[in-house]
Specification:
The complex is a heterodimer of chains A (489) and B (77). Chain A has helices spanning 5-24, 32-37, 44-55, 58-71, 77-103, 108-116, 119-151, 158-176, 178-208, 211-221, 231-244, 249-253, 261-289, 299-303, 305-353, 360-383, 389-401, 404-412, 418-437, 450-468, 473-488. Chain A is built from 21 helices and no strands. In chain A, α3 packs across α9 (178-208), α7 (119-151) runs antiparallel to α17 and α9 (178-208) packs parallel to α13 (261-289). The longest helix of chain A is centred in the last third of the chain and has 49 residues, at 305-353. The termini of chain A are far apart. The radius of gyration of chain B is 16 Å and the shape is elongated. Chain B is mainly alpha-helical. Chain B has helices spanning 7-23, 29-35, 47-73. In chain B, α1 runs antiparallel to α3 (47-73). The chains are: A mainly alpha (489), B mainly alpha (77). Chain A binds chain B through residues 73, 76, 79-80, 83-84, 86-87, 90-91, 94-95, 98, 210-212, 215, 219, 223, 226-228, 231-232, 234-235, 238-239, 261-262, 265-266, 268-269, 272-273, 276, 280, 284, 287, 482-483, 485-486, and chain B through 12, 19, 23, 26-29, 32-33, 36-39, 41, 43-46, 48-49, 52-53, 55-56, 59-60, 63-64, 66-67, 70-71, 76-77.
């Protein structure tokens, strides 16, 4: 039985979103500062939701939900690691924001170049960050196709759904750059938080009679869902994810958007509450879903669990809102990635290889072209069959964790040197690569995963090489700027 | 003897220690394996899920307290 109401509600929602972006999605100023970091002018309440958007992505409501349905309590790991990741934000955010303000930094490679004074290292980080992010953008576009088809009961094919959202996202990213991304994330973030919290609690009460009764029913039918099945994997996945949390281009870029250090810290203080709440609710609904016949049949049904439960409880109206939160979360994730990647490739890759450096206006123009061209490429990659995509995505995640010392420790410890970065990344990537190619070798390291083991060696090498290198006066001066900035305020 | 820690550094170090103390029970395998049971329930929650929730709330509360202290002292940077 189909109903047009779900589609009508979604279309109305996106029409309103279009009006909001058209009205507030473009700043008055022009130039790279506006395009790349929205003029560094965002108050905490605005930037909070763009920070949330980089954490709560579309797969939160599909893959994480499915994981909780199939594996139980371990599916709540995202709540723990996101809270831990935002502590990194609290610690490194202010000083990186100050360096950004003083030296006109717009992204992660900019920061690496300034911190270590090594242009090649910055180019490597730019290209690595771009490659690591690419599989996630392809998966995001696939999610749009899959959700559109589900919402229209198959009337609209997946390729059409992917095309519609690819065009819409490219349009607003090119139109307003990071400001349109921030405005979109703010609007969608509020809707998502309200719908997720209200909707999931309503579903738990409607389906099971409350949280307590739900867990009692799970205990009676599937008691193994209420414990962590593999505790070593639980620890490994949380620590590896935590180490890589602020090594993503688009997540790091959020640091530069706030208008002051105080705003940044208010975000770091408040965001964990909302992120953790959403992940907890999705996780426990997934655990409840493990005893629902309509959800627990296979992985595909488990990953559609949120749509199924919302639809069973609230009919087409709640189904429409479930579809909106999945699409909105995925939009808010891919727009940040595409907008950041466009600027990074234009400014930190193409521009670095040119003899005559581009002006800032030319960088903005080039970023717009890259966003458009890259989205077309992502679209064509998305419509093809890529069965190993999720494997590639997870592997890239493991490699990211090994960049922790270069990006995070370097922000807090002034002795860290460029040589240490090269050495630690080389060792970390080699160890991670060997463990990925030959998983049996993981037994040599007590059975810990590739990411966490690679990061462990990378950290040791980073400290060892840094301590063996001479102190760098320029870095001393850079760290002194943070204190001086405070005095000048 | 080396440099004395500033008041700001002491506060942040204090939070880091608090964070480790709070988070370790559900990350370190010896304690995690001991606590990893559904029963006894604590309120409506199975024990291990309650501990996750408690940890998450304690970390959030700690961050709030850290912010308040730093904000009051003018140590936000």
């Amino acid at each position: 039985m189909t109903s047009p109401w779900a589609v009508i509600i979604v279309v109305i929602y996106f029409c309103i979103l279009g009006l909001v972006v058209g009205k507030w999605g473009k700043g008055k100023e022009k130039g790279l500062n506006e395009f790349a970091v929205a003029g560094r002018s965002g108050p905490w309440w605005l930037i909070m939701f763009t920070v949330l958007a980089t954490w709560i992505i579309g797969s939160t409501y599909t893959a994480t939900m499915g994981y909780a349905v199939m594996s139980g309590a371990i599916g709540i790991y995202m709540a723990m690691y996101s809270v831990m990741g935002l502590i990194i934000f609290y610690y490194i955010g202010p000083r990186i924001w100050v360096w950004g303000k003083v030296h006109n930094l717009y992204n992660l490679p900019d920061y690496i170049g300034r911190r270590y004074g090594d242009r090649r290292l910055a180019i490597l980080v730019a290209i690595a960050g771009f490659i690591i992010g690419a599989p996630w953008q392809i998966m995001a576009l696939k999610t749009f196709g899959y959700t559109t088809t589900a919402l229209t009961y198959g009337a609209l094919p997946e390729v059409a759904g992917m095309a519609i959202f690819a065009i819409a996202i490219t349009a607003y990213c090119v139109y307003g750059g990071m400001r349109s991304v921030v405005v979109t994330d703010f609007f969608q973030g509020i809707i998502c938080v309200v719908v997720v919290i209200g909707g999931i609690i309503a579903c738990i009460y409607a389906k099971f009679g409350g949280i307590g009764p739900m867990f009692q029913q799970v205990l009676a039918q599937r008691p193994e869902m209420l414990v962590i099945e593999d505790t070593k994997y639980w620890t490994s996945i949380i620590v590896a994810s935590f180490l890589g949390a602020y090594c993503w281009l688009e997540i790091f870029n959020r640091i530069f958007l706030a208008k002051s250090v105080r705003d940044l810290k208010i975000i770091a203080r408040g965001a964990p509450i909302l992120v953790g709440t959403v992940y907890f609710l999705v996780g426990i609904l997934g655990i409840g879903g493990s005893i629902l016949a309509s959800v627990n049949v296979d992985l595909a049904a488990a990953e559609s669990g949120l749509l199924t439960i919302f639809s069973e409880v609230g009919g087409p109206v709640l189904l429409a809102f479930a579809a909106i939160i999945i699409i909105a979360a995925e939009m808010s994730s891919i727009d940040s990635q595409i907008a950041t990647a466009g600027v990074v490739l234009a400014r930190n890759a193409v521009n670095e290889f040119k003899r005559t450096k581009l002006t800032e206006d030319r960088v903005v123009k080039l970023s717009r072209w890259i966003i458009g061209i890259w989205m077309v490429m992502v679209y064509f990659l998305s419509i093809g069959e890529l069965p190993a995509l999720i494997v590639i995505a997870i592997v890239t995640y493991e490699f990211l964790a090994t960049m922790f010392p270069t990006i995070i420790i370097g922000a807090l410890w002034k002795r860290g040197t460029a040589k240490a970065c090269w050495a630690s990344m080389a060792v970390g990537w080699i160890v991670c690569g060997i463990l990925q190619i030959s998983p049996v070798t993981q037994a040599w390291f007590g059975g810990w995963g590739a990411g966490i083991t690679g990061a462990f060696f990378a950290i040791i090498v980073y400290f060892a090489v840094s301590l063996a290198s001479p102190k760098d006066e320029k870095v001393e001066a850079l760290f002194a700027e943070v204190e001086a900035y405070k005095e000048a305020r | 003897m080396g440099n004395k820690l500033s008041r700001k550094s002491k506060t942040r170090l204090g939070f880091a220690i608090y964070f480790v103390v709070v988070i370790v029970p559900i990350l370190a395998l010896p304690t995690l394996n001991r606590l990893n049971t559904a029963e006894p329930f604590v309120g409506p929650f199975p024990r291990i899920i309650f501990l996750m929730l408690l940890d998450y709330l304690l970390v959030c509360a700690g961050l709030f307290a850290l912010y308040e202290i730093e904000s009051r002292r003018g140590d936000l940077l």
